[in-house]
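Internal ticket #5521
Category: modeling
Description: The requester needs a full-assembly model to guide mutagenesis choices. All entity lines are attached below as received. Residue total reported by intake: 1490.
Assigned to: D.W.
Attached entities:
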Amino acid sequence: MDPIMSRPDAAALVRTQMSRKGLTWTKVAEAVDAPLVWTTAALLGQHPMTAAQASAACEVLDLGDDVGESLQQQPSRSIDPTLLQDPTIYRFNEALAVYGPALKALIHEEFGDGIMSAINFQVDIARRAHPDGDRVVVTFDGKFLDYRW
Amino acid sequence: MDPIMSRPDAAALVRTQMSRKGLTWTKVAEAVDAPLVWTTAALLGQHPMTAAQASAACEVLDLGDDVGESLQQQPSRSIDPTLLQDPTIYRFNEALAVYGPALKALIHEEFGDGIMSAINFQVDIARRAHPDGDRVVVTFDGKFLDYRW
Amino acid sequence: MDPIMSRPDAAALVRTQMSRKGLTWTKVAEAVDAPLVWTTAALLGQHPMTAAQASAACEVLDLGDDVGESLQQQPSRSIDPTLLQDPTIYRFNEALAVYGPALKALIHEEFGDGIMSAINFQVDIARRAHPDGDRVVVTFDGKFLDYRW
Amino acid sequence: MDPIMSRPDAAALVRTQMSRKGLTWTKVAEAVDAPLVWTTAALLGQHPMTAAQASAACEVLDLGDDVGESLQQQPSRSIDPTLLQDPTIYRFNEALAVYGPALKALIHEEFGDGIMSAINFQVDIARRAHPDGDRVVVTFDGKFLDYRW
Amino acid sequence: MDPIMSRPDAAALVRTQMSRKGLTWTKVAEAVDAPLVWTTAALLGQHPMTAAQASAACEVLDLGDDVGESLQQQPSRSIDPTLLQDPTIYRFNEALAVYGPALKALIHEEFGDGIMSAINFQVDIARRAHPDGDRVVVTFDGKFLDYRW
Amino acid sequence: MDPIMSRPDAAALVRTQMSRKGLTWTKVAEAVDAPLVWTTAALLGQHPMTAAQASAACEVLDLGDDVGESLQQQPSRSIDPTLLQDPTIYRFNEALAVYGPALKALIHEEFGDGIMSAINFQVDIARRAHPDGDRVVVTFDGKFLDYRW
Amino acid sequence: MDPIMSRPDAAALVRTQMSRKGLTWTKVAEAVDAPLVWTTAALLGQHPMTAAQASAACEVLDLGDDVGESLQQQPSRSIDPTLLQDPTIYRFNEALAVYGPALKALIHEEFGDGIMSAINFQVDIARRAHPDGDRVVVTFDGKFLDYRW
Amino acid sequence: MDPIMSRPDAAALVRTQMSRKGLTWTKVAEAVDAPLVWTTAALLGQHPMTAAQASAACEVLDLGDDVGESLQQQPSRSIDPTLLQDPTIYRFNEALAVYGPALKALIHEEFGDGIMSAINFQVDIARRAHPDGDRVVVTFDGKFLDYRW
Amino acid sequence: MDPIMSRPDAAALVRTQMSRKGLTWTKVAEAVDAPLVWTTAALLGQHPMTAAQASAACEVLDLGDDVGESLQQQPSRSIDPTLLQDPTIYRFNEALAVYGPALKALIHEEFGDGIMSAINFQVDIARRAHPDGDRVVVTFDGKFLDYRW
Amino acid sequence: MDPIMSRPDAAALVRTQMSRKGLTWTKVAEAVDAPLVWTTAALLGQHPMTAAQASAACEVLDLGDDVGESLQQQPSRSIDPTLLQDPTIYRFNEALAVYGPALKALIHEEFGDGIMSAINFQVDIARRAHPDGDRVVVTFDGKFLDYRW
């Protein structure tokens, strides 16, 4: 008996079909009927999908039931440390090294002692036109949680 | 002869006066006449201030010229790794571990092969009212830079 | 000759059948007639099972003798460090970073110089209803061991 | 001008007076009128106290206003990695290495995809009498937070 | 269905054909009609190629469409840390450990607060004849980016 | 008896006088009569200076003999790892992560099995005007050393 | 041609047969006619066996010549760091963290400046009956080596 | 107010007086009336002493009450990782890397699934005469603890 | 198409034939007509061989052309960190931890500011008879390179 | 009471006087009447000196009794990892990364299973004249120790 396909193996097949069929994440997210960043993260292995979502994804991607089964599994949410070297990802971490303590200070000033939830949380990405070159705008939007005993 | 006060020592005195005088970062940023997150980061040691900015900051904080001299120095922008354990800062890094590969994929889809600049870059923080509890909204806004030889 | 199936390979097959047969850990623990957290940990590879426990587990999970043989092996109890990034697991470690020194001080105050055993030890998990949202209650219960020469 | 006393320096003075005056954490927590584990953690530098709490703590500990001022500051919540080697603290981390994946699986089974909050969270410690030797019982009690976009 | 060949697998086949056919990177770069260092890096897995570039590379290297498909994929740009031990690569990192702070100081003196871009960036390598032994000359040429809010 | 001033302490005083006297590294290098990058690195603690160089540096910087004595000492050439996070320095390391294996392949193709020396070595930095924004050009120039038994 | 079976692969087959044939390490050590801890370590991959020892081991374990050939190879003596997390192994390392500096001081006091050899060295393990519970007694016995130029 | 002297500072003074007064650990342990290895470890900062033990130690070492107060404090039991490089300490860790898995296997064979306690534990060191050179014999003696739910 | 056999795979086959044919490194080095340590290192994957050397090695080792092709490839010179734990290798690193700063001081005293090359470099190993036991004598012989701009 | 001066503090004063009095390690080793590398290592903090050696060293270096007392203390033999970055020291470690496995294989071939002792061990350094540039010759000479139970 073979175990359920792993989430990384499923993600590799998703990327394969994205490329071979010329699909965009936007189009797949529409097919799945879920937010763009959420869908992309889920297909790359970071969220479990419902059976309906997995089925819709596999249909648009022309992938089999073994992939669909995998996409519904609860993943371990983690990242291989070497991926953090990739410049497109690293810049976000650099920004947090520079601005993290300031964000902490300002969250405490505005909300009190607590955090921005990373669970009750959504991310969005947009293009902002600018005469000096268009800009990537990423918005982190999480519920404030106060330290409460 | 004593060397110029280090940026961390200056930041400790800034925090001391913030607390003793009951000031807010918002108020200090107004005095410095600079954006809120930028000013907070600069006073915590991550940006050099101009002479005028440093002077305005020291006036509202009632700090001496030795602090003002320090605030104008070019810092080394880095973060002590143990600070990354702080839950308020850690949640941002967790979000990037979960969504980083998805953001990379979507930047490439929308803009092509490149990155969001962390230099030509600004961060903003806001409170968004919500019936289930107010939310922290942090916006990263950086110029897209394409890999260009 | 093939070696005995590894504990991680057995765990992958356990998870596969849990999903395909729609079983719960609670139901499997009942079949194994052992505590819930213990059974889950054992099936995920952290405790050796007796022959009877392994047999009961394989029966309810519809798995073969090769899995049953594996489940009886003495495991190496360790965790891949990247799994500690998973937010559901990380929160426990964060809580220990925040409260660890306090727990140490209080154990010393109440019991004297020593530790809570992690071997003569049991863990339980429960749901506690709460008007603001139900709560996860995890109880660590270990024998006090005093430093004794 | 001297900066505000650091939280670790304040904690060292708290420990000094605990020892010299023969106080218990229980007694200090009563004086502060706050939960035992919370108070211990706060005095060791992991939570900001209110002015009233800091004042009550300093009175029972016979410590000065400089300590009281420090106890009200927002700390960076982190732990020196070498402290994690201490056996009394290490046993908790060992238990999580052994049972972490099982707890994750059981939280998902009972509550769905999400986490136990470490912010809306409380810890308690108790002694449980047992004929084979009394036991340390530590309870983690955190609000369940589901992944919600 | 097999996933797209990974970039490291494609690079291994590129190196294989370079050796078996006695090709030089210079010759392959000419066939691809792209700069030498860029082409080498791309074939080793650090840049996506256009369909035309991948096709030209596969033709000169006598490699199949599966390699060509792989060469067009967006890579994760990272390096296995053990490769940094290789003396030919390590010397560059050693030079940066010795001269990095000086380069930072001189960039700030000449350009102001900012960085040399590693994205809008090109590298060149040349041989410089010298009576004491020829020299390797590597030029990093990146756009200056100033910290701009 | 006090030991010789450490190189980092001397470097802090050098930076102090650079700032207070409004000097540039270029001007100090002229006074020392040595190459710009070499002089900057030496004053920041990475090379020993001759007595004459140290004396010239201290004269233009208005620093005492204790600094001059320190500047002549043989340093340990190393860098604090947290400094490598600084974006201005990090970009060089990122470029080497991306292009290091390509540079290795091209050195081997052009020169044979060996390395670019980091000892018989010089670095230069220049500004290159460009209509899209001026560029930082850093040249590494080291003698080729072949593996020779 | 296949390479010689690796020592870890041979160890996995040894463990397999230990389990399937219900053998004990004591019995295998008798068959090999070598000390108990040495034999166990050798079969787990940490010492080369003579041809006679390997042959005797394979006979009692009913393993083939390919395993016997592997057991005679010179191993690399090292341990995967994740195995050090296993509680049964970790306790030894914890004891050394607590008592290491004391053992060093006492070796120097009794023998002078030097070490206990880990090469001219033997380990033994025994059970010591005790009314409060039997005890594990592990003896390290190594030749003293003095620093001798 | 000064905090209680740290355990490392107390240990440095203990070592100072050991040297200046020509004392041996054996003699101090007799004065303290406690086992040799325990006393050495306690004076080096790894165990709290009773008031009587601390007083006896300070008398024989001619140290003040401030040291005696420190010796009674509960320490954090940990070791600076750089100390593990010391060859006299390292050899013990090397022996565990080589024999750790064998000891684990033999503990399980003799006692079942469990560990040797490092808390209900004692260490002894002895000299064993041998014609090829005397030997260091270190005995670890800890209660067996079985995994018991 | 299969890629060229990796250097580690080739090294495993070399070791296999060394064992099966009862060859010594000395004998193989003679066949290759190259220095002993160089040849051993090259066959273990650290140097490229010429076609003639690879052919001679494969003939004496009775290995195929696929191995010979591999031995001519330019390797990445690095070592898996876990191999550094092996006691036979570790002792060299320990010696450098103890004597490294002294060697640095003496190189600077005798030669001036510079290094011993590890590229224009040879290593030799010899047995030196000694009445107390024969000795391993390893000689590092590298060209002095002075820091020269 | 002040503790005995630390070995690093003593080494800093040794280096200070070496520089101020223009002494060489050779001359100091003669005064101490001990081998050159041993004396240098001892003065830099890696070996305890006898009273006579310490006295002779302090006389030639014109240092006080406090330094002499320190030089006689048993050190912890370790090295700060950042010092290993220094190129003069790093080259030795690089050579071991390249040749370590070969040296291990050749020690086993010539001597059998065992190690070169780093305790019964001496190091020497010499200059070897060579027409292409003089060479640094470092000899490691340690007693062979065979694995002996």
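Resolution: model delivered.
Comment from assignee: Chains F and D do not touch (no CB pair under 8 Å).
Ticket closed.
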